[in-house]
Amino acid sequence: MGKRRMPDLYRAPFPLYTIKVDPKTGWVITAGGGGGSKTGIKNAVHFLGLELVGGQHCATLVHSHDTDTHATMNLAIGGDVIAAGQDGRCSLMRFRQRQPRGKAAAKDGGGSEQGTARRRAGKGGKGSEGAAARGNVSEMNDNTTQISVDSFGEVQSDLNPQDPLQKCVRFSPDLSLLLTGGTDGHIRVWEVSLSYAKIAAMLRLLPNCYCAGFSLTVMPLLSHQYPSLKEKLDFKAHEGEIEDLDISPNNKHLVTVGRDFACSIWSGNQLAMSLCWHEKMPQIAAKSYRYMSCRFGKVEDQKDTLRLYTVQIPHKRDRKPPQCYLSKWDGQNFLPMLTNPCGTEVISTLAVSDSGTFLGLGTVTGSVAIYVAFSLQKLYYAQESHGIVVTDLAFLPDTLKGQSLKGNNEAAMLSVAVDSRCQMHTVRNRRSFPIWLVLFFCGLMVVGAVLLLQHLFPGFI
Fold first, then answer.
1. Is residue 455 over pLDDT 50?
2. Does residue 193 have a pLDDT over 50?
3. Which is more confident, 204 or 275?
4. What domains can be seen in the chain, in order of their start residue?
5. Which of 159, 156, 166 is nearest to 85 (CA)?
């Protein structure tokens, strides 16, 4: 482990701030931009088609959705809806795949551009070009993925009078709630229309093999229905900016972290408790660290068990950089379970795999690491893989599509940074011995020990 310059999976024409993977289709959705300044750097949401070819991952731009003068700083996916943080508002977009009808490229009403996936030409490349030259363009387009994106609304998610900025956004696991946090220290919660949330959640859980038949009956109903939002909660959670938030799978607890050194557990808008990660570490001075990230995670093979993970970073920079820390908490009673140092590079982002087995960390110096959630031990490390701060991470989901894209890897994680690059980081499947082989060797050792004792001490046995 050390400096490991990873090959770029994709490079955008603008800084990338956020990345997510649609669990149903496997599309990689990443976004960013240059903001409202007139620098010529565009703002857009890019849809990438991810493939595994010969054990190597490759990505192609399938669709680009222009976001005008607003750079998307964070986003969440709920069914086929994207909630995108743009300045002090949360913009809502609907995406779906459409059947091509003989047009190679199209622009939708929301300023979207349809890209054609670039593939390497094999020996039949000349034949394909010849077919296109003869006018058989429609045949080529029939195999091209086409995505339409519609912007259908927005909500004001931050009311900071000076510089409003939404810092984080999450859908609840059942897609019934949309939660945002911003620089004004407020948590805002919206209820998603019940009928849409139920259908979207059902589609999300369906296996890929049922997509075609199911979509014939349900998708026409869903495609004409946009979710409506009704504000449910608006409360002051922190003094100053909110850095991160997450909600438990049963919607019972909301966890928030802010720049005011606090990590708070909420039940609705009522403060249930505040966490203290260094309670048993007297060498850590008060307010020398602040919370940076928080995420709930499952425990593999333990259905009803839940964990909470938090990252703590130094509040001030020293000439000799102090350690950052990674903590694990019981997700039911929020008692501390384990805290480990995770290096002197300041952590910028945290991700948890669907199974809860792995944690991903990105740093302000461009490094990427993968940890084992059980022991908080480092498993993978790519030092300064990006040229600058890592802005977001996303593990490939544990759906059928996600598993097929992982290949012979135990984990696969995407990273994006301000350097406009998207990279893939993988952990190969670790070899394990079958239990029968372990028992066989144990038996051999017992027999060998008996024979050795009989040889050294005749008549002992």
1. yes
2. yes
3. 275
4. 2-430 (2.130.10.10)
5. 166
